Structures are given as C-alpha cells and as structure tokens.
Amino acid sequence: MVSRSFSKYVGSGNDFVLFDNRNRKFPYFHPHLVKKLCHRQLGIGADGIILLECSAKADVRMRIFNPNGSEAEMCGNGVRCFVAWLQTLGFTRPLYTIETMHRILSTKWENSVVFVDMGAPQDIRWNRTIEFLDQKLIAHHLNTGVPHLVIFVDQVRSVDVELWGETIRNHPMWAPHGVNVNFVQVLSEQKIKIRTFERGVEAETLSCGTGATAGALATAYLENFSEPIIVETKSGEELTITFAREDQTFSKVGMTGSAYCVFNGELDLAAFC
Prior knowledge:
This protein has helices spanning 31-38, 76-86, 161-169, 209-223; strands at 3-11, 14-20, 49-53, 60-65, 71-72, 95-99, 104-110, 113-117, 122-132, 135-143, 147-152, 180-188, 191-198, 203-205, 229-232, 238-246, 249-258, 260-268. The protein has 273 residues and is an alpha+beta fold.
C-alpha cells in the first residue's frame, strides 16, 4: 500500500484536498488520479486537488487541479485553504508569498482569516454581447487569476445556473479554453449576491473566490461603488473584496475570508491508479 496523508479544507463552500508534495511524492499525478480523488462517490470528493511544492521564486508553490483533471492557473478560495493548512505544517509566519502558475501572490494569516493580494485584473472587457437562447446578454470579462464573465440579473436565485453556465462557458466567443460564468445580483451599495458556474468543475459550486472578486470589481465599475464590497456566495458565507479603482481598471485588489479544516486522513494512492 502506498499511503499518503492528506487534509481536506473548505473556504466559503469550496472544498479542496491538499497533499504535501515538497519531496516529490507524487511523480505520477495525472488527470485520471485527480478525477477519482475529486469524485464525491468514488473518491474523497472535492472541487479541486492542491499540491504544496518548493519554489525558487516565493516561499512556497501551490499547484491546483480541477475535478476534470486539468491544471488551473490559480484559485482564490483554494489559496485561502492552502494558507490555513500551512499553519499545521510548521509555517508560523503571518505573511507568505505563493507561486501559482502565472502569478506570485502575497497572503496574510490572522485568527483563522486569510487575506490574499489578488493582483490587478487582466484582460478587462466591458459590455460584451452574447447571443444565448434567442436573446442577447450583456457580459463583462475580467481575468482575476482565471478568466471570468459577470452577468447581472434581477434575482440570482431564479437563474438556471447549470443550463446558462454550461452554455455560456462553452460559447465560441471564449474558445478554445472557455470561461467561468458568474451571475450577480446587487443587494445594496456595499453588498452583492453571486452564483458561479466553474470551468474545470463543470458545474455550479458553492463559492468561487476569483469569481467573487470579478463580480465585486464589475459592480464597483458599473455602479460606481466604493470599497469594500461584501460578496454573499451560494454557501451563505461572505467574502470581502477591497481595491483601488483607477478609471476603468483596478489595483491593490484583495480578498478576505475564512478557511478551515474538515478532516485529515490517510489514502492508499495505489488503489486509485
């Protein structure tokens, strides 16, 4: 038996399985293994698998894999879970830099709450028209670590997120890689409610940190709102998004929220290969 220890963490409804790969224990980590580990009936069940690795550019490196086996650029809620988990591995400093696929993120840990410096959003495209089910939707594109569309609706609870999300996520406009799709309802000047269809999970999730960030920034720009903006996710938990606005762009974007351990375990990885 090839036994490996793991931890399962949750950040505002997003759940992740985390492995310490600093000693390269998983040379055979591949899509088939990821799919089985994330499967909620045949595996542990998760919205993603996270690996801790050594980094030459930052304090640590984080790799994250989607349930469909693909490797993601980054994940906001996953970063918060990652930082909370580091506290159990002997990382006791409050500040860390984390290498992700394309960015180095700065984070802060304090009293079970994690702040993530999300960096400036890229590839901002306001007011894009998408033809969908014989109607035209206005969507706003921001890359907040991964690409997101934001669509504003009157009542987010009435949206068929699975149907709309899957269709728009695979729209030719966003080929070949697709896009995450967020539906946002403005509740007040400082608060929004959001539901997200996540690329890679290929379903609606209870929360998405990069999606919450994209939704908050789009709201700030279109509604001329100031920071902070509170984002209520489908799980009912809230994320706080802070930023500095510069006309149509943003800087100093931060996300704050909690993350906690669900359980720790031992896994026979050979049984999944």
